[in-house]
Amino acid sequence: MRSGSCLRCGASAVELALVLPVLGLPFVFAVDFARLYFYYSIITNCARNGALWASDPTAALESPYGNATAAALADWPAHVSPTPTVTPPHPELSTPNVQVTVTWPFTTLLSYPGLPNPINLTRTVQMRKAPSAPN
């Protein structure tokens, strides 16, 4: 009776060894998706901060940041590298809107077929310029 239970333990170990890779792949995919969503939300906040700084004419006087790029990178975690690329608005354009684009290369934990690695996360935020004097 004792030898039969040891055979069952061995069969369970073999079953676990066969099923574990199948269960591990969806787990790693879910972790990658959560990381992608996390960094995309940070990039969205960075682009929004840069556009908000550039759309307010009094921001340069009251803000601790010197330009839209510094304002955009204020929410970026210091321990994450590389730093994202920020495309600030052109000050010489006389359009009623400002546009800030933030781009960052996201590297997945595994290489998935059909997906490039790294994936360039890009977010563009456009805001209307606030008037410099009230009406």
Highlighted features:
3-stranded antiparallel sheet; 17% strand; 135 residues; 3 strands; alpha+beta; rod-shaped; 3 helices
Structure overview:
The chain has helices at 2-55, 59-62, 68-72; strands spanning 85-87, 97-106, 119-128. The chain is α+β, with helices and mostly antiparallel strands. It has a domain at 35-128. A three-stranded antiparallel sheet has the order 1-2-3. It is rod-shaped and about 85 Å long. The termini are far apart. The mean pLDDT is 88.
Write the layout of secondary structure elements.
Layout: H1 2-55, H2 59-62, H3 68-72, E1 85-87, E2 97-106, E3 119-128
Antiparallel strand pairs: 1-2, 2-3
Quick summary:
It contains 3 helices and 3 strands; from the N terminus they run H-H-H-E-E-E. It has 135 residues and is of the alpha+beta class. Strands 1-2-3 form a 3-stranded antiparallel beta sheet.
Q: Estimate the global geometry from the Cα principal axes.
A: rod-shaped
Largest sheet: 3 strands, antiparallel
Averaging pLDDT over every residue, what do you get? 88
Side by side, the strands of the main sheet go 1-2-3
Determine the N-to-C terminus distance: 92 Å
What class would the helix/strand composition place it in? alpha+beta
Helix residue percentage: 40-55%
Q: Count of DSSP E strands?
A: 3
Low-confidence stretches: none
The helix-strand sequence is HHHEEE
Multimerization status? single chain
The number of helical segments is 3
Please state the CA-atom Rg, rounded to the nearest Å.
25 Å
Please report which band the strand proportion falls in: under 5%, 5-15%, 15-25%, 25-35%, 35-45% or over 45%. Answer: 15-25%
